Amino acid sequence: MSKPPSDFDIELRMLVEAVYLKYNYDFRDYTGASQKRRVLVAMREMECDTVSELQSKVLHEPNGFAQLLQYLTIPVTEMFRDPEYFMAIREQVVPLLKTYPSLKIWIAGCSTGEEVYSMAILLKEEGLLERSIIYATDINPESLEAARRGVFPLDRMRLYTENYQKAGGKAAFSDYYTAAYGGALFDRELMENVTFADHSLATDSVFSETHFVSCRNVLIYFNRRLQDRVFGLFHESLCHRGFLGLGSKESIDFSSYAERFEPLARRERLFRKVIA
Amino acid sequence: MNHVATPEQQLAPLMKGRQVELVVIGGSAGGVDALVALLPTLPGNFRPAVACILHVPADRESRLAELFDARTALPVVEARDKQPIEAGHVYFAGPGYHLSVEEDRSFSLSCEAPVHFARPAIDVLMESAADVYGDKMVGILLTGANYDGADGMCRIRERGGLTIVQDPKQAQSNTMPQEAIRRCAPHLVLPLSGIRTVLPLLETP
Question: Which of A241, A243, A245, A252 is CA-nearest to residue A275?
Fold first, then answer.
């Protein structure tokens, strides 16, 4: 039943292979339809008529790959995105996290950091931030750099304040930032126990003994094989009965790890590791 | 006497040798009402999969799948990430995410930028579905007040699929069907009643 691949599909596979061989970024198991669209956008923006032309740019021009990477990754995020997720963490995960003397939390695919600051604020309000170590990882160095800076557009603050309140925020959201550098600069103290790291879910290994892994709207870009790898990583990383949080439309159901996590809050996509 | 072909007669030659495995139905303003007229006509033994996509607000939970499940003989669900596309099932695109079809005939979701201010966008679903299903699919574009869907219908046509557009004269909002007609010369332009008649006939007997 298989039909012959189109020229575009052939070139796309070669591009992804070239990126892997030269830069060790592995996009080979990203979902096809969305990757195809992003490469088309990159071609338009980088003024290439064919994928082969784009490949040549990526291989031979000094800034080519860094440019392409911005199109291949999707930095769509906001603070306290899906407030009910954070509310469920407060109500159902935090009480159990409080029983540990120290905590390791991994935010995988943290993009430009909105999710990291949200989590740090939540932990602070729950009295857990001081005993937590947060690993915030992403494959895109430019996103990580933005996350470290912690300056977000002022015009987003209205939405974030709304989200924060819906997520059960206990203070005034504006207490956490000051207007600076043409944006909202977030309190440095929130980041004292945060380690930002360049990490690929496709090729790197795990952070050990974490209590909570939050990885939202990352897995939808992976095919089932890569999703399985990543669920495996999380399962290995999490301590006994550790917690896993996913994006609002992500599920473990179609993965081979379906049986190894149990839902804690099904709608909010919070899960717990099951003993094998 | 001037004889005007009925919708069945118009469809018959287009179905010759065609095996339909997926029907994608897109719409925007007025789309819910149009689907209320269409989906309940599908018989319980309809074989092709049906994927429906309407422009829905991102911040609200969509109840469309539930609403139609109660009115349709086929099982109706919101399409989930990595879900295999099954014959005889009706899927709805949920709010806030683009819905695509993958090479292995499963769905995937993504948060890329909105297309024509829409996420989910009809173009995204139709284009990705056309790339996978080729001539084994049908695209139906209904009422709507923007340009989403025209690119998708063009892609379906290019890949050999069958294209049906609601007659703009009778659509609640005519922009969407008009643009598709202008851009891709669909196989059939029918009033809603005509689409209602041909929809259950889109499978090989």
Answer: A241
